[in-house]
Amino acid sequence: MDRKVLDLWVGIFVASGLVALLVLALKVSNASTTFNTSDSYTVTAEFDNIGGLKPRAPVKSAGVLVGRVESIGFDNEKFVARVELKLDKRYRFPTDSSASILTSGLLGEQYIGLDGGADEALLENGDRLKLTQSAVVLERLIGQFLYGRAAEGGSK
Amino acid sequence: MDNFVVRALRHIGHIVIDGVWRLGYASRFFFLVLVRSGPSFRRFALTVREIYFAGVLSLIIILVSGLFVGMVLGLQGYDTLQRYGSAEAVGTLVALSLVRELGPVVSALLFASRAGSAMTAEIGLMKATEQITALDMMAVDPISRIVGPRFWAGVISMPLLAALFSAMGIFGGYLIAVVLLGVDAGAFWSQMQASVDLRNDVMNGVIKSIVFGIAVTAIALFEGYDAPPTAEGVSGATTRTVVTSSLAVLSLDFVLTAFMFRGL
Amino acid sequence: MEKVLTDNLVEIDNVEFRYDVRAVLKGINMQFPRGRVISIMGLSGCGKTTTLRLIGGQLRPTSGEVRVAGRPVHAMDMRELYTLRRRMGMLFQFGALFTDMSVFDNVAFQLREHTTLSDRTIRDLVLMKLNAVGLRGAQDLLPSELSGGMARRVALARAIALDPMLIMYDEPFAGLDPISLGVIGNLIRRLNDALGATSIVVTHDVQESLKIVDYVYFMSEGVVVAQGTPAQIMESKEDYVRQFVHGQMDGPVPFQYPAAPYPQDLRLETVRG
Predict the structure, then answer these.
(1) What are the C-alpha distances in Å from C134 to residues C99, C138, C191?
(2) Nearest residue of C to residue B131, measured between CA atoms
(3) Are A69 and A85 in contact (CB under 8 A)?
(4) Are strands C37-41 and C198-203 parallel, antiparallel or unpaired?
(5) B137 touching C (Cβ < 8 Å)
(6) Is C97's Cβ below 8 Å from some Cβ in B?
(7) Does B134 touch chain C (CB under 8 A)?
(8) Nearest residue of A to residue B170 by CA position?
């Protein structure tokens, strides 16, 4: 086979392979929805129970993606989960905003919902969210329900 | 009786020693290929030529298989997911299965049977017709001239083929789910993008396919180089290439998956 | 033969070679003087090809020494060996042409690998070599399009591409028609004399090689059993050489493969009993 034809085919092959990789990166994965570290700030929040929250889970406010969970740790003195949130600089929240762990749909993934407060001061890098609400754990809910029913039955 | 036991023990000993010897020989061969791969890059035209044989000629089978695998995933995924009222998640299912597992694994298996067997047969035949010896006698190192460029061509081609396979498969899933079954196109793509992660899913898939490329190509080249220089020897080595490299791909996949997706 | 040591290009000194436990060569001595065409003859499996591989440095002798141009081959490292091999040409049994290259590229292969000559110079050199074997017109053919004799001639052109000092032939006459036999035989002699090289021809084709060689070593089961000029060989009284040269059916190499006595195999005794 002619050298030029061969080179051409290999060129087409390599180019299309790279395009496929690019498609996987940009069209299929979440690369288009991640933002740079320089355009973000980090705040922490403590939860009694994070349920099934995972790193890189979305942080939403009013349903809009405003950031992602950076890391999840455990505070060995207070026995609570410490979650670092990386938020987009474009979205600023008052210091008395509250964070709660929510579930999208009945069986969907868990994410953090931010509700803005009324304070004048805004959250800065390294601040801590004081108002948090833990994940709803189904077993506890059922346990409380049964306990309540039993107490009701006893009082009758 | 004694005689039988002694013979059985001797036989087992032979098999073990033979296996260990072959493993050592293969490792030495692999090491030599790496050390002497200078010409594969200095004279890149040699490698480009082999990319044509390993990559371009595998293109059709990879694209067609990818399309069909994606279409089947779309059909099966839709069938199951719509029972739970989440037919939109079919995009997630198709993309995650392809990018994480099926893309690298199936394209590596296809690569082993298309390009790997061809490499073994070619090198085996070169050995049987004394072309390898002739090279050596002409003061041209067969490992750096013949084996090296093929090795690097395989390592370069494999991730590109796997990416094409996955992209084609996602397109196939899109055809079935959106065009044929009427899943909403926006939901299809956005659910997919929400759950496929660039680093954890796409990059890990690429790493897998590079590892598979190294394994399949190294096995194919070793089997060819080690083949007895006869017609039966070459055909036996070709069969061994497909069997061994398929097993290697599947077991390596398990190990890599355990490493990559363990903590998540 | 004159034993002027300095005049020998290749010397084999008391060489033994064992493959695993099987002794292939059991102490052989040979001298190959410069400018001569010398043949090593014997049956298949007598150690001829092994001897050739020892000279080329592809095998190491178990004991003894092979010297090429005064230097022991087995003591060289890979770089020295490759430097030496650039001055050796080898014709393999079935040519061993590179099947994915044209005739021209096959002959040009070593020139491109080992020299920095320009494309035009390489073209001229290749055409000269191809002309020497009479195949200048076949330069664009692929090895699969050549007949057995033509492939052998192309391989010969490739073997002399770098004007070697030593040309080795492994069974150059195997499987050729009578015309090609004569052509190859003549080419071996003519190219040797034109290049001022030394040639070693390993063969079992007595009639063809005796016409062109200067000296013959006869090997059997790993030892040299006879040696001499073609005339001496033809006249030899030794049983083995006579059987070999004249193609006799029975002799030191028996016609019958070792077996149980014939009547016993046919169970004649039991019938009689």
Answers:
(1) 20, 9, 12
(2) C96
(3) yes
(4) parallel
(5) yes
(6) yes
(7) yes
(8) A28
Residue pair B242/B137 in contact by the 8 Å Cβ criterion: no
Q: Which helix (H) or strand (E) holds A143?
A: helix A138-155
- Give chain C positions within 8 Å (CB) of B139: 81-83, 85-86, 110, 113-114
CB neighbourhood size of C86 (10 A): 16
Please give the Cα distance from C44 to C170 (Å, whole number). Answer: 12
Residue C250 has pLDDT above 80, yes or no: no
Asked if the ipTM is above 0.85, the reply is: no
Question: pLDDT-derived band of residue A149, with 50, 70 and 90 as boundaries?
Answer: confident
- Burial tier of B185 (Cβ tally within 10 Å: 0-12, 13-18, 19+): middle
Q: Does B138 touch chain C (CB under 8 A)?
A: yes
Q: Between chain B and chain C, how many beta carbons pairs sit less than 8 Å apart?
A: 45
Q: Is B139 on the interface with C (CB under 8 A)?
A: yes
Backbone angles phi, psi at A46, to 5 degrees: -110, 135
Q: Is the pLDDT of residue A95 over 60?
A: yes
User: How many helices and strands (H and E) does chain C possess?
Assistant: 11, 10
**DSSP assignment of chain A:** --HHHHHHHHHHHHHHHHHHHHHIIIIISGGGG---GGGEEEEEEEES--TT--TT-EEEETTEEEEEEEEEEEETTTTEEEEEEEEETT---BTT-EEEEEESTTTS-EEEEEE----SSB--TT-EE-EEEPPPPHHHHHHHHHHHHHHHHHH-
Is A21 in contact with B160 (Cβ distance < 8 A)?
Answer: yes
Pick from B45, B201, B264: which is nearest to A29 by CB? B201
Mean pLDDT of B220-238: 92
Q: How far is CA C170 from CA C69, C201, C220, in A?
A: 21, 6, 17
Contact status, residue B145 vs residue B135, Cβ threshold 8 Å: yes
Q: What is the pLDDT of residue B184?
A: 84
pLDDT at residue C244 greater than cutoff 90? no
CA distance B126 to B124: 5
Give the number of other CB atoms < 10 A from CB of residue C146.
19
Work out the percent of chain C whose per-residue pLDDT is above 70.
96
Binary contact (B138, C93; C-beta < 8 A): no
Beta carbons of C92 and B133 less than 8 Å apart = yes
What domains, with CATH codes, occur in chain C? Answer: 5-236 (3.40.50.300)
Asked if B95's CB is within 8 angstroms of A28's CB, the reply is yes
Question: What band does B264 get if pLDDT is binned at 50, 70 and 90?
Answer: very low
Q: What is the pLDDT of residue C246?
A: 77
